[in-house]
Amino acid sequence: MPVRLSVVALTMVTLFSVAAAAQAQDRWRIDFENGAAISGYNDVGIPGDSGTRFSMTDDLTSDTEYFWRLRADFRFAPKHVLSGLVAPLTVNSSGTFDGPVDFAGATFAPGVPTDGTWVFNSYRVTYRYEPFRKATWMFGFGVSVKVRDALIRLESNAAAAEKSNLGVVPLINFKFERRLGGRAAFLLEGDALAAPQGRAEDIFAGLVFDAGTRWSIKAGYRFLEGGADNDEVYTFAAVHYVSAGVVFRF
Question: What is the pTM of this model?
Answer without folding.
Answer: 0.88
